[in-house]
Amino acid sequence: MATEAQESVDLTPLLPVLERWAPRGRSGLLPALLEAQTHYGYIPPAVAAEIARSLGVPLADVHGVIEFYALLYNEPVGRTVLRVCTDPACALRGGEQVLHAACALAGVEEGETSADGAITVERSPCLGHCNSGVSVNVSFGRPVRNITFAHVTPETVGDLVDGRGRTTADFWSEDYVGGDLCIITPLCGRGRRTKLLEYEAVGGMQALRKVLASMTPQQVIETMRRSELLGRGGAAFPTWAKWEGAAKAPGRPKYFVINADESEPGTFKDRVLLEGDPCRVLEGAIIGAYAVGASRIYIYIRGEYPLAIERVEAALQELREAGYLGERILGSDFSIDVEVRSGAGAYICGEETALFESIEGKRGFPRVKPPFPTTHGLFGKPTAINNVETLAQTPYIINQGPDAFLRLGTADSAGPKLLCVSGDVVRPGLYEIGFGVTLRHLLENLAGGVVGGRLQALLIGGAAGTFATPAQLDTPITFQGLRAAGLTLGSGAIMVFNDKRDLRDVLRRLARFFAHESCGKCYPCQLGTQRQYEILERLAEGQPLPGDVIRLQDVGWTMTDASLCGLGQTAASAVLSAMKHWPHLFANGSARHA
Amino acid sequence: MPEVTLTIDGRTVTAPEGMTILKAAETIGIRIPTICYHEACTANAICRMCVVEVEKQRLLQPACVVQVREGMVVHTRSERVERSRRTILEMLDSAVDLSDAPEIQAQMAEYNVNHNRFPGAERRTPPVIDDNPMYVRDYAKCILCWRCVQVCAEDAQYTFALGFDGRGFHTQIGTFFDLPMPETTCVFCGQCVGVCPTGALKPRREWLLEQGKTPDEILQMSRTARRKARRAQR
């Protein structure tokens, strides 16, 4: 089979791809595969073999990488690939119906390609448009283009098929951005990218100028330490400590990485920042790279965010032309540039060490820690890696000083925070708040309250988060306040469910997400996410088995206690919290069949 | 080399800095169970059977890679540890054919594994791959310990014939676009067969004997015998 295919494939379109990426060796593998796929629609064996040869990567490893990433294909797919989000937020708006309509249109089951090769339909994990679902990511045409659409309905999903001329604008309403504060989102949600000149006009890039003109790297780190900024990606680790660790670590070169692989279901803040105001994030990263002594910045953006990738590229071009990037920037001794890397469909690559592996051209397997990224990060070198929102906070801290930043929060939780509100509320959207306001304020005053019924539950922190009940609405949104209530802020996603919703269906979707996204490295997660999904699937279908409650607990606690990385450690978090709050959801079913 | 003193299951142990908890426990006769671990392979902390409870650590720690530290207090058989180990074994048992894995069978007996813990669970049951004269690959028995991939690569042979298909529960060891072994870089060194703990990789002759073939029949399957037979037909 392979030999046949090798004879029939024209390798000419591959030449410029190889010219670009072969000098990078294995690190060029993912970009080379993604670019090759835009020409061929998939990766034919002959193409994979040629890439392997040119980049010096073993054949089996190239195949393993193609197999790992959901957006890469090792066999032909339809001229249009429809990836329909059916994760909780989109499911509330009819994701399942859109998926069925797409399947009916193509005459296939999910995961299949129509007989004429026109359409492939896939079920997709969260696409980060939870405030404007149903969201569908579409690859179409030759060379393949990729667009993520919002507000898709069963009636309109057919319009997304190649050749019908639809553009993003036909399926778009700009993200709603609101809240009590406007520190990091003043230029977001305006329907377009804020250009560098506009950002500069409101004081943008002043923080970088100040840092380069008058601050040592140590002073920058000290300023960050006094600001008490904690990472906004979910782990809430002190930003200054990462920077100091990488700055002090022996070894060169050093790297600075922007983690823009936002994939936590219910989370879209990083997308909104990168689409609306990328220069702010990049300014924060350049400051961070200066503090760390890094010689290169990588920004790893999830592959399902094509618009964010395009706009970051455009912003980088402006920054280079204006002298903010390149050799000896702004007349200083500091040289730096940014390289954009696209993900290819793997939630696990948001885990920092898996992200490094991915940039290095490997399957996104998380590494055993320690050693930590500050000493052994990207390419084994000292690396600081921060979330997009974390970096967007940095210019304000430098400009206004750490005290001003501290005043925006509470004693234990400094600064502004972005919260992604989705689900059954009047105004789903991105909200910028100061730490310390209550969940009730967010839900009732900012998001306009619950629609479609009374409040049943909040899911805080995404799929890896925990459920809150209406009785917990007066919990203050701070790291400590939420922890005291048995909750976790995580990535800042808050999904709202009214009392008409079946939480068992929500749990099934969360479980399917983790089973789909587990990398398969460690046993507790590889096996546990699958078993958890199977149990919750039959629970949602009303057919639980006796003993399923204990089974879920054993699987859940084993994943939590014994998994290698954060994915497995949190894969049962929402389920275990639901079992605590609403035992009847689980017990009723069991009793019925016992 | 500097030494550290720690406590394992209430007993004081002195061990050189840099030693793993697994090895330090061994020095006082405490055996921590392992599945993926192999002396000749890089430890990857995959199977998590060796997890132990270390005081002041939120999560269980894999003993095969975590190094001893001064004052560490380790519990190798706490309730949390036992639950994780039993559940890992039960989940593995529900997914994979462990009939050829005596070490894991012994562990299942020790941890009172319920062999029907996960009714209705999807099992991994790919067909046997018999594509070369040296060994067969029965991935229904594969526990994804990675040993074969590691010895085929940097841990021993630098051949890089083996890699991964799929991901998550549906991961399987495979070759470039599922090519038959003779069409890959495989040099038939046999190291992968040597480190396989579950009989997923097996010498072809052993496998044929298990299939009920007699030694004579197996001899007839050799290339020379087949050539002779073809010539006789002409």
Helix content of chain A: 40-55%
Gap from first CA to last CA of chain A: 51 Å
Query: What does the average pLDDT of chain B come to?
Result: 96
Which class best fits the helix and strand makeup of chain B?
Answer: alpha+beta
Question: Helical segment tally of chain A?
Answer: 25
Uncertain residue segments of chain A = 1-6, 590-594
Share of β-strand residues of chain B? 5-15%
Q: Tell me the helix content of chain B.
A: 25-40%
Estimated structural class of chain A: alpha/beta
Low-confidence parts of chain B: none
Relative strand content of chain A: 5-15%
Terminal-residue CA separation of chain B: 73 Å
What general outline of chain B do the C-alpha atoms trace?
A: elongated
The best one-word shape of chain A is globular
**Cross-sheet strand order for the largest sheet of chain A:** 5-11-10-14-12-13
| Quaternary organisation | heterodimer
Q: How many DSSP E strands of chain B?
A: 9
Following the backbone from N to C, one meets helices and strands of chain B in this order, namely EEHEEEHHEHEEHEHHH
Protein topology:
The complex is a heterodimer of chains A (594) and B (234).
Chain A: H1 2-8, H2 14-21, H3 29-40, H4 45-55, H5 59-68, E1 80-85, H6 88-92, H7 95-106, E2 119-124, E3 136-140, E4 145-149, E5 177-179, H8 196-201, H9 206-214, H10 217-227, H11 239-248, E6 255-260, H12 269-276, H13 278-292, E7 296-301, H14 306-321, E8 338-342, H15 352-359, E9 383-387, H16 388-400, H17 402-407, E10 416-423, E11 429-434, H18 439-446, E12 455-460, E13 466-468, H19 479-484, E14 493-498, H20 503-517, H21 523-540, H22 548-562, H23 566-570, H24 573-581, H25 583-593
Parallel strand pairs in A: 1-2, 5-11, 6-7, 6-9, 7-8, 10-14
Antiparallel strand pairs in A: 1-3, 3-4, 10-11, 12-13, 12-14
Chain B: E1 3-8, E2 11-16, H1 21-27, E3 51-54, E4 61-62, E5 73-75, H2 79-95, H3 102-110, E6 135-137, H4 147-152, E7 163-165, E8 172-174, H5 191-195, E9 201-203, H6 204-210, H7 215-220, H8 223-233
